[in-house]
Write a structure and sequence with these properties.
about 475 residues; mainly alpha; two-stranded antiparallel ribbon; transit peptide; Citrate synthase; transferase; Citrate_synthase
Length: about 475
Amino acid sequence: MALSNVSRSALRRSMNKATWTQKTAFSAARTYASASKSATLKETFAASLPEKIDQIKRLKKEHGSKVLGEVTLDQVYGGARGIKSLVWEGSVLDSEEGIRFRGLTIPECQEVLPKAPGGQEPLPEGLFWLLLTGEVPSEQQVRDLSAEWAARAEVPSFVNELIDRCPSDLHPMAQFSLAVTALEHESAFSKAYARGMKKAEYWEHTFEDSMDLIAKLPSIASRIYRNVFKDGKVPATLKDKDYSYNLANQLGFADNADFVELMRLYLTIHTDHEGGNVSAHTTHLVGSALSSPMLSLAAGLNGLAGPLHGLANQEVLKWLQEMKNEVGTDLSDANITKYLWDTLKSGRVVPGYGHAVLRKTDPRYVSQREFALKHLPDDPMFKLVSQVYKIAPGVLTEHGKTKNPYPNVDAHSGVLLQYYGLTEQNFYTVLFGVSRALGVLPQLIIDRAVGAPIERPKSFSTEMYAKLVGAKL
């Protein structure tokens, strides 16, 4: 539905809604969730655009010349860490508070986002809606979105054939990226751009591509998993089930209701972690060149596949398994402390601990720990994780080389997946990729809707930087 076709009454309702702020987001979320009508996601987003575009124009006009901070040479050579230079609407990461999705903390999202009938964890469909619009959807809106994704889920036969022809020892993430790239053949954005379209139409085709792409990811991911690790048979998408259930079912785990709940939690908390991480930034960067959502997400997935990003969770699980083999059943404080120090003295890091921004325990870790306490409190690996959580912060603080001695999301996720039988660690990053798509694609839609330009920062050589700071090489 084009913006020009949105009813005047819908526009008035949107313009009259109070602007969301971090202070009032939680109460506003409650109000909206109970009062919302069953407008579609596209209609809701379109109705919010005039106010959003006006906000950006006024902000640039009135404050465009204000200085936000300085850049040091350490930041330039340190991967641009901490430099304020990206616009990311969906989430903001605070060093002490953790992530907020459109102003809502993870516990608040767990409370207010709609759930499946009888379920306890939020549906990722609801978070996608929240990230795109800034509004908590009603249960009916989420049910409708689940149905729309299920209706769009069919994967083109040539993409299935492409996956089937991949050698079984090609890493699942490489296969995943390959399949997403191949979906470029179906891109509404690329076809419309080739025909010629107005800039005001960019977001609509980006929206359609993103919806199609997200809808197909569970089938693509499951086909890779079933080909590489199982019998190659993938169940059909069930039109009356939610996104997470279909993913669990196609992977072969839907007979365990707790695993389905884990997928709902996992997909929700791994979606978005502000825009500076490699997968988010890469998707945004490639999209700024007006590459389609398919090509943009594939680029982001290639970044996610790196050992310093999405592979971290399997590195944690490998390290925990090595620890368990050495300490056995003796999880005493002394034993765990010794193993931690042995790890550090060997020149290695404690995987899953530390974060580029956070200076506290990652709320995503906490949500997974609470899930484990509820569903698998006696699991030996969870007990080991708990002991490490108890002791590692003190050891790392004493060691003195870790700015954040607390666990991040990767310190827990692998243990939960292996408990339910999904033990193939090379596949874990694919699950991360399915989730991350739900976080980066809303921003891509917003980028095109507000007319974000191509990203093009300035670069200098080392010699020029030396000249700028008055140094001699």
